C-alpha cells in the first residue's frame, strides 16, 4: 500500500490526466495470439469494440 506521499502523487496525476492529455506507454504489456474457430467470439467478449469486421474496412475507416 502506498504511503501518504505516494497517494498524494497519484491523486495529482489522476487530476492532471482528467484536466489535460496523457500518453501511457503500454508497449511493455504482454501480447497474445488468439487463433482458431472461437477466436472472434473470444475477442468480442473481452474487447470494447466489435472485432468481427472486414479487414478492408479498417484501412478505409476515418480516411
Beta strands, count? 0
Overall helicity: 40-55%
The ordered string of helix (H) and strand (E) elements is HHH
Oligomer: single chain
Features:
63 residues, elongated, mainly alpha, 3 helices
Short note summarizing the structure:
This protein is mainly alpha-helical. It has 3 helices and no strands.
SSE layout and pairings?
Layout: H1 4-19, H2 39-46, H3 55-60
Task: Report on the architecture of this protein.
The chain is elongated. The mean pLDDT is 80. It has 63 residues and is mainly α. The N and C termini lie far apart (46 Å). Helices cover 48% and strands 0% of the residues. The relative contact order is 0.07. The protein has helices at residues 4-19, 39-46, 55-60. The protein has one domain. It contains 3 helices and no strands.
Amino acid at each position: 500500500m502506498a504511503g501518504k506521499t505516494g497517494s498524494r502523487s497519484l491523486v495529482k496525476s489522476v487530476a492532471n490526466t482528467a484536466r489535460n492529455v496523457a500518453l501511457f506507454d503500454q508497449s511493455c504489456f504482454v501480447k497474445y495470439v488468439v487463433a482458431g474457430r472461437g477466436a472472434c467470439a473470444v475477442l468480442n467478449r473481452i474487447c470494447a469494440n466489435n472485432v468481427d469486421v472486414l479487414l478492408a474496412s479498417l484501412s478505409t475507416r476515418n480516411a
